[in-house]
């Protein structure tokens, strides 16, 4: 029987919150900073519209 792991739950919730925050911050960047990051305004808008629980592959457990 598997048991509930609060540490993993806490980490997952932190990842969700950070992901949502990062996506909102993308919209605040000017075009020069977006270009420095290698993304377009359109790509930033598309990323920001994703739900917070849709984590990037490098953040998934």
DSSP, total strands: 0
Order of helices and strands: HHH
**What amount of the residues lies in strands?**
under 5%
Distance between the termini: 20 Å
Largest sheet: none
Instruction: From the alpha carbons, calculate the radius of gyration and give it in angstroms.
Output: 15 Å
Number of domains: 1
Low-confidence stretches: none
Average per-residue pLDDT, rounded, comes to: 88
Q: What would you call the shape?
A: elongated
Count the DSSP helices: 3
Helix/strand-derived class?
Answer: mainly alpha
Q: Indicate the percent of residues in helices.
A: 55-70%
From the structure above, extract its key features.
mainly alpha; single chain
Structural topology:
Elements: H1 6-26, H2 31-37, H3 41-48
Helix pairs in contact: 1-3
Task: Give a verbal description of the structure.
- It is a single chain.
- This protein is mostly helical.
- The protein has one domain.
- The protein is 59% helix and 0% strand.
- Helix 1 runs antiparallel to helix 3.
- The chain starts with 5 loop residues before the first helix and ends in a 13-residue tail after the last helix.
